[in-house]
Design a protein that fits this description.
By secondary structure, the chain is α/β, with parallel strands linked by helices. Helices cover about 45% and strands about 15% of the residues. α11 links the parallel β7 and β8. The longest helix is centred in the last third of the chain and has 19 residues. It is globular. The two termini are about 15 Å apart. The structure holds phosphoenolpyruvate (PEP). Phosphoenolpyruvate (PEP) binds next to β8. It is found in: Cytoplasm.
């Protein structure tokens, strides 16, 4: 059975106290909920990671993730943070290839292969983001476009390695816009990506890979989106900054 995952992407939001408050609220709320079969991941900015890890403590099913890591292992790369550093204090996940990093920091498919390599070599689970801009969706070539992102960044990894990667499909036109993909649009793309993974790695491997949906997911639409057979959870931006909304989304399966 595939893991059900809800990951919160705080992006570059919240000061130290706000981050502590949000984490404590989520930890407390999740204690009272029966969501044991859902893996919940908090992905704050780097400066929050260690204090958030301390607050998570040994809460079951709640994990720490980063929003990025370096493509290098160590050395003279001022301002970078390595996957090994993140793993050394208990981070378990790392978001890679978010469209904001692709667009504003010019991260290429090739660079993302190197970052994924670093993550896997250090025992982190990459949450590998892919997704098309609006003009590609409107031209009808969105499946080809997104499949190519996976092929170019990930298809050099072994079956064992690909099994350790989580995919997040995030149509760019739905991120932070309030315009979510319909559950059918999400399902169609997720099924296409799973078939694409199966064409390279076989259906057994593809059936085991969690594919998350991201893009204006909120407590009102999560249940419908998560009900689709190839949607295994969500990568949540804006709504992950409000404890009640985030926990409601976790409870949407
Ligand atoms: C994201 O940034 O990964 C995201 C899905 O953002 P939002 O939920 O705000 O659209």
């Amino acid at each position: 059975m595939r893991s059900k995952i809800v990951a919160g992407n705080w992006k570059m939001n919240l000061n130290f106290d706000e981050g502590q408050k949000l984490t404590s609220e989520i930890v407390n709320m999740l204690k009272d909920e029966h969501v044991k079969d859902v893996t919940v991941v908090l992905n704050p900015p780097f400066v929050h990671l260690y204090p958030v890890k301390k607050l998570i403590g040994d809460a079951p099913n709640l994990f720490l993730g980063s929003q990025n890591c370096s493509d290098k292992a160590s050395g003279a790369y001022t301002g970078e943070v390595s996957a090994g550093m993140l793993a050394s204090f208990g981070a378990k996940f790392v978001i890679l290839g978010h469209s904001e990093r692709r667009e504003y920091f010019k991260e290429s498919n090739e660079l993302l292969t190197a970052k994924t390599r670093q993550a896997l070599d250090n025992g982190l689970t990459p949450i590998f983001c892919c997704g098309e801009p609006l003009e590609i969706r409107e031209s009808g070539t969105h499946e080809t476009y997104v499949k190519e992102q996976l092929t170019e960044s990930l298809f050099g990894f072994s079956s064992d390695e690909i099994s350790k990667i989580v995919i997040a499909y995030e149509p760019i036109w739905a991120i932070g816009t309030g315009r979510t993909a319909s559950s059918d649009q999400a399902q169609d793309m997720h099924a296409a990506l799973r078939n694409h993974l199966a064409s390279k790695y076989g259906s057994n491997i593809a059936e085991g890979i969690s594919i998350l949906y991201g893009g204006s997911c909120n407590p009102s639409n999560a249940k419908e989106i998560f009900s689709k057979p190839d949607v295994d959870g969500g990568l949540i931006g804006g709504a992950s900054l409000k404890s009640r909304d985030f926990v409601e989304i976790v409870k949407s399966f």
